[in-house]
Write a structure and sequence with these properties.
This protein has 7 helices and 11 strands. The longest helix has 22 residues.
Length: 244
């Protein structure tokens, strides 16, 4: 009997170890991309620090790059979401566009922050994926935001109306299928050009991927001291990662 137990217990231990190994979930990984060929936001460095901190607090790993050459099928494979942190310009060649498009179509997540709508104007697919393109903006100022969807991860922590200071983008929309999360009250500031329906944050599922965009995030303070913006951003990242 002792001999039998001697044989059984190691076997059970090995089975338990195998089960734990095969069923342990690896932490999600995100890639921040912040290449700028046009205007470069001073807040990019603060944004990287803040997102890395959010990752450490919420169990996802954050890598960063400004190298478009890393947009290949093999290089993007480890990441569950890509974050465009205020990139500007036409930075992708055709092969890089194809790799990014295939990444989204394979179920990859995408988060666009602020100037992520101020790039790749010549690529129609990108405009449809992110939901719209930047046209212009007035001076940085306070405005009132209305929360139109209180159930999304990116808006649950917020209270409507939400008054904050930022650089408020006007947009040219290319995809009517976006699901709006936040709108701007153009009567609360000067320079708005989208009228009574002025979305400033939205999400949608696009060709297999999960896409979130927020027009907020111009100022360094957004990342260093605005807890509600950071909660908003974290919710968007979790949506892209499909984390509840």
């Amino acid at each position: 009997m002792k001999k039998l137990l001697f044989l059984i217990f190691p076997a059970l231990f090995c089975l338990a170890l195998i089960y734990a190994t095969t069923n342990s979930k690896k932490p999600s990984k995100v890639l921040i991309f912040s290449k700028t060929l046009g205007y470069r936001h001073k807040s990019i460095s603060d944004g990287i620090v803040a997102i890395k901190k959010l990752g450490g607090q919420n169990g996802f790993i954050v890598d960063t790059t400004e190298n478009p050459a890393l947009f290949t099928k093999a290089s993007l494979k480890p990441y569950q979401a890509i974050i465009f942190l205020s990139p500007t310009g036409e930075f992708f060649n055709e092969d890089q566009k194809a790799a990014f498009r295939d990444y989204i179509r394979s179920g990859g997540g995408f988060v666009g922050i602020h100037a992520a709508t101020d790039c790749l104007y010549k690529w129609e697919w990108y405009g449809k994926m992110i939901g719209g393109y930047f046209i212009n903006h007035p001076a940085t100022q306070e405005a009132v935001i209305t929360i139109t969807d209180t159930k999304h991860l990116a808006t649950k922590p917020l209270t409507s109306p939400w008054k904050r200071k930022d650089e408020w983008y006007n947009f040219r929309y290319t995809n009517p299928d976006i699901k709006v999360l936040l709108t701007l009250d153009e009567t609360s500031y000067t320079g708005g050009k989208n009228g009574a329906n002025h979305p400033i944050s939205w999400y949608h599922k696009f060709e297999g991927g999960r896409v979130f965009y927020t027009g907020l995030g111009h100022t360094p303070e957004s990342y260093t001291s605005d807890e509600y913006f950071l909660k908003h951003l974290l919710g968007g990242i979790k949506y892209a990662l499909n984390i509840k």
